């Protein structure tokens, strides 16, 4: 049986960090997008106490509409609190999908290189 989408959460330097891992086949299930969205929003809401910014670190080689939809719902929550969303580990082969949807042009939505550390450094530029 395929593994359910897994979202691990922590706070690093006051920023919520969500690590998202899933089996590619699992994302084909009809309820996968809703489960991922619910998990991401719940963990973000539980931890976003100090500041509204969030880093999502993806550990996957493929993305599709369930993940993009979950990221967009998380983005809307974050932006409503005047925060920024940084996504690290987004597979380059799927950039066209984000560009076509206009997601990369949204205020407060950023793709980060350098993994979790790079994304956190972008949100905390004064930290060494």
**CATH-level-2 architecture:** 2-Layer Sandwich
Query: What's the order of the H and E elements?
Result: EEHEHEHEH
Q: What is the count of DSSP helices, taking H or I runs of 4+ residues?
A: 4
Q: Number of folding domains? A: 1
Distance between the termini: 43 Å
Helix content percent band: 25-40%
CATH topology: Transcription Regulator spoIIAA
State the secondary-structure class.
alpha/beta
Would you identify the regions where 5 or more consecutive residues have pLDDT less than 50? none
Can you identify the CATH class? Alpha Beta
Strand percentage lies at 15-25%
User: Mean of residue pLDDT?
Assistant: 89
Envelope shape: globular
**Order of strands across the main sheet:** 1-2-3-4-5
CATH superfamily, please?
STAS domain
Radius of gyration: 14 Å
- How many DSSP-defined strands? 5
What's the story with the biggest beta sheet? 5 strands, mixed
What can you see in these coordinates?
The protein is an alpha/beta fold and 128 residues long. The protein has a single domain, classed as Transcription Regulator spoIIAA (2-Layer Sandwich). Helix content is 38%, strand content 22%. The chain contains four helices and five strands. A five-stranded mixed beta sheet has the order 1-2-3-4-5. β3, α2 and β4 form a beta-alpha-beta unit. It is globular.
């Amino acid at each position: 049986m395929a593994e359910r989408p897994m979202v691990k959460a922590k706070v690093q330097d006051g920023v919520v960090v969500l690590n998202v891992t899933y089996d590619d086949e699992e994302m084909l299930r009809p309820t996968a997008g809703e489960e991922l969205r619910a998990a991401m929003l719940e963990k973000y809401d539980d931890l976003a106490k100090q500041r509204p910014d969030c880093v999502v670190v993806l550990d996957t080689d493929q993305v599709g509409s369930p993940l993009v939809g979950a990221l967009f719902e998380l983005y809307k929550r974050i932006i409503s609190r005047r925060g920024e969303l940084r996504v690290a580990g987004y597979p380059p082969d799927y950039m066209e999908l984000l560009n076509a949807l206009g997601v990369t042009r949204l205020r407060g939505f950023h793709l980060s290189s350098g993994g979790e550390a790079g994304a956190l450094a972008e949100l905390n530029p004064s930290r060494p």
